[in-house]
Amino acid sequence: MKLIVAGATGLLGTEIIRQSLRIPEITEVVALARKPVHLDEGSDISKIKSVIIRDYGEYSDDVKAEFAGADACIWTVAITPFRIKKFDFAEVKRVCQDCTKIGFEAMYQAGPARPFRFVYLSADGTLRDPTKKPAIWGDYQVMRCNTELMVLKFPTEHEGVDVCIAQPGVIANSTTWSRALVANIFRVVNLVGRPFPNVHRSELAAAALSQAVNGIEKETLLNADLVRIGVKALKSQKTIQTS
Ligand SMILES: NC(=O)c1ccc[n+]([C@@H]2O[C@H](COP(=O)([O-])OP(=O)(O)OC[C@H]3O[C@@H](n4cnc5c(N)ncnc54)[C@H](OP(=O)(O)O)[C@@H]3O)[C@@H](O)[C@H]2O)c1
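That is the input. Now the predicted structure with NAP docked in place:
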């Protein structure tokens, strides 16, 4: 199968690309990003096609040609809440919402396989009622709510499309010392349940890949679903590697 990973150089996108290399069903990966993807030395990168664009809202005919025949896309592009202060809100909305629509349309125009699975990364706590404005990051949360509602309409407006909205909690990982500290705190807290929704980056990447490869379990996956699916998918990836 051919998979497009949008946001391939991001925190989650990098891990999705890394894991896609060991999933035999995936034969071709379009790593869509604003800069080249860096992979671990020694990786077999023969199935990765790095496609570099200037902006997630602009797709030339050459780029669209790279999308043709894709079976699935995992869309990870967004400005995350802690970074929104660095941008005008109009730019935050453009990157998070408008680019999602433009990117999806470019893939659809390119002629994807049927079904074409579109796995969209959102966040835990995103409401489905845009009239409800949360006290924290209110405008941002309403915009992400509207983006989810927009993505949920893709299948009714485009024949042969299945969508999945993933709503992870905090992504725990060790890419920086502060993230490693947070990940370790979660590791302890997770021994007594997950009072603060969180998911390890490897689990989330595995869960998103599992939906793209094996089909969508349900339209909206909450943090607990993503942990459950991700843990199972990681075990099966390890079995494949050692068998
Ligand atoms: N990180 C978390 O703890 C967390 C928790 C819950 C949900 N999520 C959601 O999961 C998804 C992926 O998160 P992540 O942590 O992987 O995000 P990230 O690394 O900050 O960014 C994801 C992608 O978005 C692109 N992007 C970021 N800012 C941009 C800008 N100003 N203009 C154009 N592109 C931009 C990045 O492109 P470049 O690589 O070129 O910069 C990157 O590829 C997002 O939807 C996020 O809201 C994240």
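Residues 2-170+201-242 form a domain with the Rossmann fold fold (CATH 3.40.50.720).
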